[in-house]
Amino acid sequence: xxxxxxRGPFQYKIEECEIKxxxxxxxxxxxxxxxxxxxxxGILSNEMQxxxxxxxxxxxxxxxxxxxYIVETGAGVEDFVPGDAVTGECTVRCGxxxxxxxxxxxxxxxxxxxxxxNRDGGYAQYITFPAASLHKINGISMDHAALVEPAGxxxxxxxxxxxxxxxxxxxxxxxxxxxxxxxxAKKIFAAKKVIISGTRDERLERAKDYTDAAINVxxxxxxxxxxAVTQGEGIDAxxxxxxxxxxxxxxxxVLSPGGRISICGFFDSTKAECSWDFISTxxxxxxxSLGSPNVWSFVISSIQRGILDVENIISHRMPLESxxxxxxxxxxxxxxxxxxxxxxxxxNGEKR
Length: 352
Ligand SMILES: [Zn+2]
Ligand SMILES: [Zn+2]
Known about the structure:
6-stranded parallel sheet, Rossmann fold, Quinone Oxidoreductase, Chain A, domain 1, alpha/beta
């Protein structure tokens, strides 16, 4: 099969790889759709945290937002049969460590992360995957199923921010995760006011149906606009879905005493300053948000029931048949060419 293999910083290309037959408890899946993600950029450059700490080893086939059809099941697989349409969790837990026992699989000490850390991902024609971390996607298109993973990341970030009907919410960063988090905060957690901030009007425009206001921080005063939109109340919870250097200064301008900050964005090599006295004297909670533990079934049913609109973030659909195809899509995402947002790739050519 053909797959994108990363062997070093910026060393990646399509290679001919062996298809791994499914072992006990595993299935073999033909990948139909895979979403290109900002995290991939950090993996390709090896600047992503896991590569800097040495937790993640090379080579790896990246791609953590994928969907496909089961073509073969290994021994002991009972809940899935060939032909099932599925998507798989990024985090694959061991099931035995103290974190797994506590229901915190995203912190599993023996975990792998599909296409991210020590487990091959979906920029490939086939993926061999444990059935225990797989979900059926009945009724959802392959494109939309590939976005269950980022929607799960957004869901977890909103949950970590403790968002509810009494909260005015600021989402920092109108990338795919920020847009999904805004939608989830408004439609699922019924936040009072949802405001999204960023630097690109066309991205902010995508959020207009599920936000109360959008702020372009390049030409608008975030403090003044938040004050106006919230009738002077300010922000109770912030979801940081971008790794900009000034994000904490923006929080300081708008966050009310007792506010919460949930961080799911990666900063890679960017250093973001924070006024720690503001955090202590205002009793602010800062929470990291890793992964998408225990939210997959809920995300899938939210998409199935039409509550969560993942089509909203898709900007392009492109082939993935050559290294050039991959580079073209990657360049398009990083340069935001043609107002790109989420780009869906097809490792087996077909468009569904
Ligand atoms: Zn992603
Ligand atoms: Zn574990």
